[in-house]
Design brief:
With 190 residues, this protein is α/β, with parallel strands linked by helices. It has a single domain (2-179), classed as Protein-Tyrosine Phosphatase, Chain A (Alpha-Beta Complex), CATH 3.90.190. The protein is 49% helix and 11% strand. The chain has eight helices and five strands, in the order αββαβαβαβαααα. Strands 1-2-5-3-4 form a five-stranded mixed beta sheet, sandwiched between helices. A hairpin with a 3-residue loop joins β1 (32-35) and β2 (39-42). The longest helix is centred in the first third of the chain and has 26 residues, at 2-27. It is globular and about 60 Å long. The protein starts with a helix and ends with a helix.
Length: 190
């Protein structure tokens, strides 16, 4: 009986500390440099956070992976901040729960390549869609190894593709793009 109690306590502490970490990551906007002075990633930032990040990191463009949502306060504030600070703004809609095709990845890479740098890429939580785009960027643009690139899709950034989470679609999209054993490179990028 004592062993069960200890197990429950250990489980509770693990879940609690994981939750606390995730809360801390979100509190700070899940903001991280993917490539210093070129590519940053984050969650959806509020107006004040966005102004601070743009100012402190000299951001010249923002790529919103949630898609255009005129009339929603978060979107309207982001557009207003971008315009007020002379930042180029791009919208591209991805779902964290749906497979991202090679064509979609190519379109996002085109935006990233043409966007003035430094670039800030974000989705709602900065974990799943942003993680996928950051991983692809590391792999394609930086030439990082598959294993290094895949770290952008990790618990460190709040990505949780386990149990019944539908965000596994981001991992599946990444591995299909980079190629997995048994897939051809042409299949992987189409």
């Amino acid at each position: 009986m004592r062993g069960i109690k200890v197990g429950v306590v250990v489980f509770g502490l693990t879940v609690g500390s994981t939750g606390a970490y995730w809360g801390l990551v979100q509190y700070h906007g899940n903001f991280h440099a993917v490539q210093e002075d070129a590519f940053y990633r984050s969650a959806q930032l509020d107006k004040e956070e966005l102004h601070r990040v743009i100012r402190d990191h000299r951001i010249r463009s923002v790529l919103n992976l949630r898609g255009a949502h005129p009339g929603q306060s978060w979107y309207d504030e982001e557009i207003a901040a971008s315009q007020a600070l002379g930042v180029t703004h791009y919208d591209y809609s991805l779902s964290a729960h749906r497979f991202v095709t090679g064509q979609q990845i190519g379109e996002v890479l085109d935006i990233i390549r043409k966007a003035p740098k430094p670039l800030l890429v974000h989705c709602k939580s900065g974990a799943d869609r942003t993680g996928l785009v950051s991983a692809i960027y590391r792999f394609v643009e930086e030439g990082a190894s598959v294993d290094r690139a895949d770290r952008e899709l990790s618990l460190v950034y709040g990505h949780f593709p386990y149990l019944t989470s539908r965000s596994r679609a981001m991992d599946d999209s990444f591995w299909a793009f980079v190629g997995t054993p048994g897939s051809s490179s042409s299949d992987a990028q189409n």
